Amino acid sequence: MGYLLLLLATLAWSFVGVLVKTASTMVDSSIISFARFFFGVIFLGIYLLIKDRKIRLRTAFLWIWIGAAGKAVNYIFENIALSIGFSYGNILVQPVQTVVLLFTARLLLKEEISARGWVASALCVLGVLIIGWNGLPLGELLDGNGLTTLLYMLAGIGAAVHVWSQRVLVTSMDAGSMNFSVFLWSSLITALPIPVQSEGFTGPITFGAWGALIVLGIITGLSFLSLAEAIKRVPFAIVAIVGNCSVFFTILWSYLFFHEPITEYIISGTLVFVAGFLILNLKLPSRAAKKESSLAT
After folding, report:
1. Number of domains in the chain
2. Tens digits of per-residue pLDDT, 40-63?
3. What's the pTM?
4. 62: domain range?
């Protein structure tokens, strides 16, 4: 069951780019950001009512609001970038998030960054730069890819803030109540600019676009719970490997559904930052463990 939940969460995240791109044929990025939270809260609330027969909405924790703001920033900039760029572009969010988390842990918690952490950070940054560059001349880079890369970097910073809030809040509340509260307030934050900023429906109203918005909400509401349950049942090494495979699925779907150009730079950059993830997350045997193993044999 744990492996199935992990696979479902991984596949769900890999479809985000395709779903946002599909929804953008009907509504603008502001509506998409709001809808991801709105439908997510609905499905998460239904899940909590079935599971616990009640919903706990938390407002008194400062980190609830910090997490809501961070996740709102994450979705707002990610959806803008996906609407104007390729559907695989959001693979940049995760490496940016990883680097931000490492350096904020160093600055705020005074945690030492190990040699492995520095190598992982360097690979993540290098992978982002390769993908952002994509072999383009400087003029084209500044006109197009540079803007979307900047937007994904801002989205990654917002995602890192949300992760920090989760780390703080998980010690004082269950994951369901935490995510419901954060996503509800995130929906309100993303709803505020809609009356003055949003263009509303920008294209034909289709079942496919509505379906994409609803599925995005399901992913927002339930994928984090699926991952949390999977972590309890599956070795962390498997979680790290399978979870990071979502970026490869994202690239595959973008090619299959939209025939977007996947260059050698995109593949190379992805391999580089995934290597950084694996170096950071997979624990190598210590020297002591290796010595004990050799003595045992």
Report:
1. 1
2. 999 999 999 998 888 888 888 899
3. 0.88
4. 1-284
